[in-house]
Amino acid sequence: MAFISVSEGLIKKSTTTVENKFITKYLPVLNSDAVKVYLYSLYLCQSGLPYTVEDFAKSINFSVEKVKEIFDFLEEFELISIVSREPYEVKLLEAENVSGTPKKFKPEKYSDFAKTVQSVLSGRMISSNEFMEYFLLLEEYGFEQNALIMIINYCVNLHGNAIRFQYIKKVAKSFAEEGAVTAKKVDEKLSAYTSSTPALIELFKAVGIKKQPDVDDDKLYKKWTATLGFDEKAIAVAAKQFKTRTVEKLDDVLEELFKNRKFDAKEIEDYCKNKNSVYNLAYDIAKSLGVYMQTAAPFVETYVNAWCNRGFSFAILKTVAEYLFRQGNRSFEEMDAFLQKLYDNGVVADRSVNDYIAKRNGEDLLIKELLTACGLSRKITPWDIESLAKWRSWNFSDEMLFEAAKLSCGKANPMAYVNGVLSGWKADGVYSVDKITSTAAKTANNDERATRAQIDRHYYDLRHAAQERAENALNRATADPVYGGVRKKLAELGIELAFAEIRDKNEAAKIAKEMRELETDGDRRLAELGINKSDFVPRYSCEICNDTGYDDGGAPCACMKKYLKSLN
């Protein structure tokens, strides 16, 4: 029970809000019983009283059956939606947009139209309220009478006399949205639909969809063939392979195939056969990377299918995942970036990827040995890899690298010192060990060379300190179970959002909203922990060069000039 309740007396004194749209549009056409039920529904909804349908009927002196019958009637007007019939639940909907004064209709104005519609719907008597809705369609959407009769006739031919007005109204609105409100336009639209009907009938028959194709199906068929580019055979194969039994499911399947560039019937068959294997591959990759995977679908759609479409084999993807795990790159995002780099450089075939990894493993081993020679025992960083690539481009042999490492051992920042020594040797043309002997002292002690080493060391220290502060702040925050849980959920939702933005915009909006709420929860928890979210991003001492010493144009930054001045 809520800790605050409202007395019956206060409820009776309060007011019930009614939309002006209801008054201007529906009040003139609804009978008194329907108005009574609708207004009492608003009263109960806004007062919060816990009523059942039996209580409702008793309060307004109606039978339960009559109340349900009126709710069915109101649902046809799209004023309410029946959520459940057992237990009986209804949801009040927003009245449709309408402006101006109440519309007044003279029944005699539409007498011929009404007779024709009744002859079309000859299997049942049309109620006065249903007629009023047809009159509203004529007035609000500007339908010609013959145009609306053609639409009603089309719906009846498709679904029989038992068809509900709600469906006719939906189809009529669909025509109006495309500007088909005249008899000529409706005829053109129906003729265009009729031209594809035989193909739809054959498709439905072939794949077991038990319904007659309608205009909405025709829209989807034109989308599949004209927009997505599938032929009839490919559509039929897709439906059979994925065992679709509704056009909505078939539409989802074809969207998936389009995204994965599978258009030919043979490609579709192979894709379907391999789909389970791809899902198993996703789980294997996650296991190799050390990633927890609640469901594979978002990872398959966002990453694994794309990797396979680029030509990477299942076996090599597992190999890459294992390699990246050893390197400390343990996420699908990092693996995607690594594979993108390989793909951009034409490294896709198993042999070329294995050669690349073998080369990288050899380089990692060399860097580890160089670190040891420098007196360091830390793990390899991206900067170490970049430095080795740079030294290779300067044409230094492994032997020369180790000589430089020996000279740097014991220095404040050994790897930065190695960079300075090699830079000096490059300037002096020293590329072999025998030349080091005569120039070692001069090179090692030369002020200019020392300055270069100092500069490299200075900026390395600045960058490293900024990055380490950011990393420590993030580690401190994620160590908290509450904030760590929020970060993990946000990462999962980020993948789901990428997937939903392609498939379902409404679902994407829901996920985005959930992520915003989680961000707010996370910010609140950070405030409780006394951690500033901005601390997760490295704060470099120089915003111009981000502590590299060089601006975007490659010129020495103003901070470097200031540092050199301080050295002098």
Molecular structure report:
By secondary structure, this protein is mainly alpha-helical. The chain is 69% helix and 2% strand. It is built from 26 helices and two strands. It has a two-stranded antiparallel ribbon. Strand 1 and strand 2 form a beta hairpin. Helix 14 crosses helix 15. The longest helix has 32 residues. The protein is elongated and about 110 Å long.
State the main characteristics.
568 residues; 26 helices; mainly alpha; two-stranded antiparallel ribbon
Report a brief summary of the structure.
Helix content is 69%, strand content 2%.
Could you give the topology of this structure?
Layout: H1 8-13, H2 20-26, H3 32-47, H4 53-59, H5 64-76, E1 80-85, E2 88-92, H6 111-120, H7 128-141, H8 145-159, H9 165-177, H10 183-207, H11 215-227, H12 232-241, H13 247-259, H14 265-289, H15 297-309, H16 314-327, H17 332-344, H18 350-373, H19 382-393, H20 398-408, H21 414-428, H22 433-445, H23 447-478, H24 481-503, H25 505-529, H26 558-567
Antiparallel strand pairs: 1-2
Number of helices: 26
Shape: elongated
User: What portion of residues belong to β-strands?
Assistant: under 5%
Structural class, from helix and strand content? Answer: mainly alpha
Mean pLDDT equals 80
Radius of gyration: 36 Å
| Strands, count | 2
Helix content: 55-70%
- Major β-sheet profile: 2 strands, antiparallel
Give the SSE order as H and E letters.
HHHHHEEHHHHHHHHHHHHHHHHHHHHH
Could you give the order of strands across the largest sheet? 1-2
Low-confidence segments, given as residue ranges, are 97-104, 438-450
The first-to-last residue Cα distance is: 78 Å
